[in-house]
Amino acid sequence: MSAADLRQKFLEFFSAKGGPTTGGKHAIVPSSSLLPDDPSVLLTTAGMQQFKKYYTGEADPIKDFGSKNTVSVQKSFRTSDIDEVGDDSHLTFFEMLGNFSFGGYFKKEAIQYAYDFLTNELGLSIGYVSVFRGGKGVAADEESEKIWKSIDSSLEVRKFGRIDNFWGPTGSEGPCGPTTEIYINGVEIWNLVFNEYYAHSNGKLERVKIPGVDTGMGLERLTMVVRNVKTIFDTNLFRPFLNALPEEVSEKNRRIIVDHLRSIAFLISDGVRPSNKESGYILRRLMRRLLVFEQKYKMRPHVFEAILHDIIHEYGDFYKELLEKNGAIRSEFSSERDKFSKTLSRGLKEMDKVDIIDAKYALGISTTHGLPYEIIREMGGEKARGLKKEDFDREFKKHQEISRAGVEKKFGGHGLLLDTGELKAKNEEELKKVTRLHTATHLLNAAMHKILGDSIEQRGSDITVERTRFDFLFPRKLTADEIKKIEELVNYVILKNFPVSSKEMLLEEAKKSGALFFSKGRYPDKVRVYTVGMGEKIFSRELCGGPHVSNTGTIGHFRIIKEEASSAGIRRIRAIIE
To answer: At 148, which helix (H) or strand (E)?
Structure first.
């Protein structure tokens, strides 16, 4: 049975399941784009993303699908796995088979459907299943265990904690709940999530009025167990493409190449174009990694082009957009090759000049020619055998400190009245201005956590007399509405003229108090915590060494002038006070 057969079998199986008592038969819903409507993620990572609003009650599934139940084969992409690709299991692009219910049916039907599809339709033997054993104030999922045992009393049921068998949003609000997972030949095949709770931003869980079902099964893994092969790369989804590469390419690099070519085709077909920001940066990173392999193994351009052609036509019957964007996929890849070849060639010439590529030399190549560490390590071969990422990062940090020192010298020379690294002022007048901006930066940090949730994390700040600059970890660009809300919230606190106070505390005590702190920072055993507000009206609490204003009303009007990308995954806000 091929992967194409499995896709069709899955959709047909669920489209025939369901009835009046369970919310109707499953409506087949096409895959959504890899560029999601959901602003909380950079790319689509799971099948349930296009259905989020149906779980929260914001949309009506009956109106949109004619049923409370849906089934889909979803294009998915995980940026977190890019550096892991090449082993036996990790991928960037993958397909997720999923069935979903928004108040139509729950655990009993979901488990029965999964069991029937795997055992009756596909003839597979389930090794064991896992259920949630309870923990952190949430009861064990005894109901799922009983359902499994009622279906097959001989089936082994294992119990795991929250990490393995409880799904919930990270750092934000949303539906969540216990999961039950199905394993075949020691491989996790299918994950069934039962959304019976709602997670609030403060971590509190409450029962939802209408529970939902959200399941996900990777097509690549399912194909592997159905065809009884050792790895996903031994399936028809990969092996023909792997075999099309020259013999001298290692198996690990073959897997990376084919994985990246698949991802490139799908990303471009969904409208992503190579750039230095967000999803475009991911695409460019994949493309350039491939072009390094092309150079390393001295492959002619037609090799990758032929594999791209085969990928497009292999998947094009199911994903029509690949055939429609065939020309764009080819031209974008060719264009990136033309742009990158000169940069790569210059970098390689520099590397030819030395016998050993150490961290310091690698950093010079990186900053001068724009080649990332991974490419220098790959192309350096034996010369870069001793090159380690931690040494490269250490040199990069030194480079940043030297650059920062140069900026500080330019800013105020040797006559700085204040220079904490974060704040700089030449005289008393400038000191007053940066102090106001410093407190405003604390308000900005707190406001962002309240508007965007705790998924944001500070990555540094820099304050001059003209502006404040705040860097933070966040996966996407902020919307105009989010920026407006953050700005308005800061100005509300300024208008309220809240008092600003400080208290010396033990570091661990300060962290437990809920005070914000820079996770990458180094703090002494005793720290000072600055609080904006008092009593029940506390707006922000943060570890800091000062200086600060005594009341927020003295800050002035706060205005965000720019929000932009600083580096991969890091956003930057620039703001002023007027």
So the answer is: helix 142-151
Indicate whether 256 belongs to any domain: yes
Are 278 and 202 part of one and the same domain? no
- What is the number of domains present in the chain? 4
Angle at 404 between CA 403 and CA 406, to 5 degrees: 65
Q: How confident is the model at residue 413 (pLDDT cuts 50, 70, 90)?
A: very low
Among 505, 503, 516, 412, CA closest to 459: 516
Of the candidates 502, 490, 496, 489, the one whose C-alpha atom is nearest the C-alpha of residue 547 is 502
Q: What is the CATH number of the domain that holds 539?
A: 3.30.980.10
Query: Under a CB-based contact definition with an 8 Å cutoff, are residues 169 and 198 in contact?
Result: no
Confidence of residue 414 (pLDDT cuts 50, 70, 90): very low
* Residues 556, 488 contacting (CB under 8 angstroms): no
Over pLDDT 90: what percentage of the chain?
A: 52
- pLDDT confidence band for 402 (50 / 70 / 90): low
Same domain, 284 and 365: no
| Mean pLDDT over the full length of the chain | 88
In a shared domain, residues 62 and 145:
yes
pLDDT of residue 62: 96
529 phi, psi to nearest 5 deg? -110, 125
pLDDT digits (tens, 9 = 90+) for 484-533: 999 999 999 999 889 988 888 888 887 777 788 765 556 677 778 888 98
In Å, what is the CA distance from 354 to each residue of 28, 168, 323, 349, 393?
59, 51, 46, 10, 21
Last residue of one domain, picked from the residues 384, 414, 444: 414
CATH number of residue 121's parent domain:
3.30.930.10
At residue 40, the pLDDT reads 66
Residue 408 has pLDDT above 50, yes or no: no
Sheet with 537-543: strands ordered across: 500-506, 526-534, 537-543
Q: 37: number of CA atoms within 13 Å, CB side?
A: 9
Do 138 and 214 have their domain in common?
yes
Dihedral of the alpha carbons of 176, 178, 179, 180, in degrees to the nearest 10: -160
Cis ω before 547 (30° cut-off from 0):
yes
In 10 A of CB 479, how many CB atoms?
A: 11
Domain identity same for 438 and 520 = yes
Identify any residues that bridge with 460 across adjacent strands, giving them in sequence order.
471
State whether 389 and 252 are in the same domain.
Answer: no
What's the pTM?
0.68
Work out the average pLDDT over 248-253.
Answer: 94
pLDDT exceeds cutoff 50 at 159 = yes
412 pLDDT higher than 70: no
Two tokens, residue 141: 């999922």
* Domain containing residue 392: 354-414
Residue 419 within any structural domain of the chain = no
DSSP 245-286: S-TTS-HHHHHHHHHHHHHHHHHHHTT----SSHHHHHHHHH
